[in-house]
Protein: SsgA family sporulation/cell division regulator
Organism: Kitasatospora arboriphila
Amino acid sequence: MEGVTARMPMRLITGADSVHDLSVVCHYRTDDPYAVHLDFHGFDPEATWVVARDLLLAGLRGPAGGGDVRVEPCCDTDVFIALGRQADVALLHTPVGHLTRFLAVTTELVPVGSEAARIDWDGCITALLSA
């Protein structure tokens, strides 16, 4: 299994006067080509979010997403990622360059549009049937 792991500086904004600097570990695996795992274990040992890679890529260009995950660029230098709904939203802020470089490596590993060819469909079906 190939993949890439990178630490990304992010700020968790929880209120007007409440900001936490984080070092989020981002994981991408070629055998799970649609997903990016955001690991917040340094801040909360239970917190890992799985976000669609195409959502993050779209969020570099303009507002993207709905529901529990939304991504939006700001001022050509930053990206905001909102995780959650309504009152329980975690708002993350990161420099756009960090996310752009990470996603560029993922698209070198698995070009956009070729993800389905990387999935072991027989293994998925076997796992579903044996569950």
